[in-house]
Amino acid sequence: MSLKHGLLGLLSLSPQTGYELSKEFALTMKYIWHTKTTQIYTELNSMEQKGWLVSERVIQDDKPNKKIYTITEAGTAEFLNWLLEPGEDIENALAGRSAFLLRVLFSGNTSADAAIALMESFRETCLGLGNAHKGIRSAIDQDADEVGAEHTLYFNIVARHGEMILKTRLEWIEETIQTIKNHHNIK
Amino acid sequence: MSLKHGLLGLLSLSPQTGYELSKEFALTMKYIWHTKTTQIYTELNSMEQKGWLVSERVIQDDKPNKKIYTITEAGTAEFLNWLLEPGEDIENALAGRSAFLLRVLFSGNTSADAAIALMESFRETCLGLGNAHKGIRSAIDQDADEVGAEHTLYFNIVARHGEMILKTRLEWIEETIQTIKNHHNIK
DNA sequence: TTAATCATGTAACACGTTACATGATTGC
DNA sequence: GCAATCATGTAACGTGTTACATGATTAA
Fold first, then answer.
1. Which residue is the nearest neighbor of D7, CA to C1'?
2. Distance of alpha carbon B1 from the chain centroid
C-alpha cells in the first residue's frame, strides 16, 4: 500500500502529530489520496510497532495532549526503498475508482434531466476544489524555505497536475451537458 | 460501495458470466474501476445471496462449465435506487489513490534522472491505454444496436472523459520533464 | 450559545489483494 | 511444445470506512 508511505514522506519533512498529518492530507494530498482521520491514527500506531516511527507525548495545558511522531532510520530506509523500487502501481493511476463515473456510465437508465443534474453537482464539486487550489499553492510557497527548493519543485508539479486535470474535467462537463441536450433536443 | 453496483449495471444490460464481466471490466470500465477477477467471483456470490442475482449453471463439453448470472427484480430495484440517490461519492472522483503521484510528490528525495525515468514510464503506460481507446470505442459501436442509443450515448461520454484526461496527462508529462530539466539545467 | 478547532483513539465491519488450486482446448 | 483463452473458485491477509467515545478552548 502507500498510505503508510505517504505518511513516511510527510514525516520525513518534519516530525508531526496525527492531527497535523490529517490536515496535510486535506491539502497537498487532496490531489492524491483521501483518507479518514481515524485511519491515520491506526496507521501511525502500526508504523510505530514496525519500528518506522517513534512517538513522544506532549502534555499541553490549554489544549488536549498530543503525540509527535518522528521517522526512524528504519522508516527512512523503508520509505526510500519504496520510492526507488520499480513499482507496478503506475497503472492504477489511470483508473481510480469513481462512483461518479459509474453513475454517468449507467445514466441511460435515468432521465436527461437527472444526468444533467449529476453533471452540475459534479461541476460544483470541481469548482470547490478550484478554490482550494490557491490555498494549496500558497501553502507550498510558505513552506518553501523550510522544505527546500527540490521538494517545492515536486509539490508544485503535483499541484499543476491537479489543476490541469480539473480544468479538463470542467471542459468535459460543459461539453457533456451540451451533448446530452443535443441528443434529447433540449433548449 | 459500487463494485456491486457496477456489476448490477452491466448485468442489467444482459445476463453474463463472471468471466465475461471480468473482461468487460478490462474494457469500458478501464476508465472507472479496476478490480481483480477473483473479487468479481466473490462479489457475484454475495450478490446472489442478497437476492440481487440468480445464476444458472451451463454444462459445456468443449470448454469449462460456466455460470450465467441474471439480475432479479430486487437487484434492479437496488441498482436504480443507488443510481438515483443523492450520492456523496462525487468528491472521491477528484482524488483517487495514486501511488504514482505520491512518488512524484516525494521525488525530491531522488535524483532528477530518477524522476524523469518515472515520468517516462508513466508516459509508456498512458500511451498503452491510448491504444486501448480505439478498441473501446469500436466495442461501444458494436454493442450500440444491442444496448440502444441512450446507453451508447453515456458510454461514449465516459470514454470521452477518459480520452480527455489521458491527453491532459500526456501534456503534463512533457511539461513536467521540461520543468525538471530546467530546474537542474539539464540539456 | 453554537460551531469550529484542537486532539486522540477503539471496535466492528466492508472491501480489495495475493497466493493458491485446477484443467481442457486452441492457435502459433 | 508453449502460451493464451476459457472458466471458476477459496483462504488469508491487508486496507479503508462507519459508528462510537471524549472533552476543553476560542471565535462569531
1. B64
2. 15
Instruction: Compute the distance between CA of residue A88 and CA of residue A90 in angstroms, rounded to an integer.
Output: 6
B19 touches strand D (CB under 7 A): yes
pLDDT the model gives residue B22: 94
Strand D positions within 7 A of protein Cβ atoms: 6-11, 14-20, 23-26
Complete DSSP assignment for A84-142: HS--STTGGGT----HHHHHHHTGGGS-HHHHHHHHHHHHHHHHHHHHHHHHHHHHHHH
Of the candidates B43, B32, B49, B42, the residue with the CA atom closest to the CA atom of residue B8? B43
Note the pLDDT tens digit of each residue in A22-79.
998 877 888 889 899 999 999 999 999 999 999 999 888 888 889 999 999 999 999 9
Q: Is the pTM for the entire model greater than 0.85?
A: yes
Could you give the dihedral angle defined by the CA atoms of residues B176, A28, B103 and B117, in that order, rounded to the nearest 10 degrees? 0
Using a CB-CB cut-off of 8 Å, the residues of chain B touching A144 are none
- The C-alpha atoms of residue A132 and residue A115 are separated, in whole angstroms, by 26
